[in-house]
Amino acid sequence: MTIGGSGEGRPSKNQRRDAARIKATRLRVQQKKKDRRNRVFLQGGIAVASIAVVAIIALIIMNSIRPAGPGPANMASDGILIGEGMTAVTTSALQPNRKPVPSKPDSTGTVADIRIYVDYLCPFCGQFEKANSSQIVTWVKSGAATVEIHPISILTSKSAGTQYSLRAANAAACVANYAPDDFYAFNTALFADQPKEGTAGLDDSEIKSLVKTAGVGTASAKINTCIDDATFKAWVVGATDRALSGPLPNSSVKAITGTPTVLVNGKQYVGALDDPKEFAAFVLQSAGETYSTSTPAPAG
Fold it and tell me: Mean pLDDT in the chain?
C-alpha cells in the first residue's frame, strides 16, 4: 500500500493560484487595517501634542500681554521726593496706563528744588553723589531744599549680561515702596559700593545686604522678596523711556541725554560734577532767581 493521498486530492494549478490570490488579498486587507489603526494613533498623538503646544503658546502670549502691576508707591512722579528732615513724600502707586504726576515745587521760591536722574552703574553719577551728597542732606534736613531722585537704567547692557543697572534701579524702587524714609540712605549705599561699568556688578544677595546697610528695619523681608522677583522691572524700563523721550516736568529741558541729569528749580546743572562749591553756588543762584521772580513786587 502506498502511503499518502491519491492524486485526486492535490489542488490544481488554478486552485493554488486562486488560494495565493485570496491569501494576498487577505494580507493586504490586514495591512490596511493595521496602517489605518497606526494612522489613527499617530493622528491622536499629534492632536494631543498640538493641543499641548497651543496651550503653551497661549500661556506665553497671556503672560506677555498681561498688564504689568502698578509702579512703586511714593514714586508717582517717576521719582521719590524727599523733604525737610529727610522725610519722603508719600504717594499712591500708579497703574501702568497712568501718566506720572509731577511733584509740585515750592510755590514761595524759598526752597531749592533739586532733581537728579541717576543710573547706579554710571561713574559720573557716583562722582556727583560722593562730592555733593553731604551738603544736599544738610540743605534738605534744614528745609532749605528738597531732593527728588529718579532711578533709571540706561546702562543695562553695560554689566557683562547681568543687567545690574536695571536690577539696582528695581531695588531702589522696592525700598521707595516699602521703606521710603530709608531711600536716600540706600541710594547712598548703592553709590558707596558702586561697581565699575563693564563689570558684572553686584548680585542680588549683595544688593540685599545694602538694604541692611541702609538701616531698613521691619520692611527688609518684603524688600528682599521684591528684589528677588524684580517686581518693578517693567516700571524701571517705562520710567527710563519716559526720561529719555521727555519732556522733563517743571523744566525747560526736553529730555535727558545722559546721567546724572541734575536740575535745580528747573535749570540743568552743567558744571563740574566733583566740585561741591560750584554746585552750591549754582543752587544758591537758581534759588535766588526763582525767589526774585516768585515774590510780588512791593506796592509803590
Answer: 86
What residue segments make up the domains of the chain, in order of their start?
A: 19-66, 80-294
Alpha helices by DSSP H, 194-249: 204-213, 220-229, 233-245
Average confidence (pLDDT) over 46-59 = 51
Distance of alpha carbon 39 from its chain centroid, rounded?
49
H helices of the chain, in order, are 13-65, 123-142, 164-178, 183-192, 204-213, 220-229, 233-245, 276-294
Distances (CA, A) of 103 to 94, 228, 260: 14, 30, 19
- CB distance 255 to 118 below 8 Å: no
Q: Which long-range contacts (CB under 8 A, 24 or more apart) does 278-281 make?
A: 279/128, 279/131, 279/132, 279/135, 280/135
Q: Provide CATH code, domain 80-294.
A: 3.40.30.10
d(CA 275, CA 35): 85
Spatial CB neighbours of 121, under 8 Å, sequence gap ≥ 6: 155, 158, 159, 164, 165, 168, 194, 195, 197, 201
pTM attached to this predicted model: 0.76
